[in-house]
Specification:
Length: 131
Amino acid sequence: MALFNYIKNHKLPTAVYLLIFIASVMPIPDIKPLHDFNLLDKWVHFVMYGTLSLCAWWDRYHKRKSGLFTNIDFIHTTLFPTLFGGLMELVQRYCTFGIRSGDWIDVLANAIGVALGFIIGFFFVRKICTK
């Protein structure tokens, strides 16, 4: 029941979690021109999880319009997205039957994206939403 309440009350982060899940388990098309970009996969992880963290910030502060930072904000904007990133790598490794492969460097890229999203959210989203 708590999960359904979370989904109902936090639609934006839930939608981003769902999109990341779908992107994480679907097969990747082999597009030759994209092979020329070094570390493109890591940049994609960085952007996806930074966006997730920012959406979580926006959702938390837009709803309550408070500039105060709480421990629950840290959990929702940093801890959950980072754990979700690690979980998605495990799902890719063990549950996609060879379609995708998990990578610990991807977990690092996810965490760096979350950290940047946290920094941007902490300094900018809070200020925008509390005005």
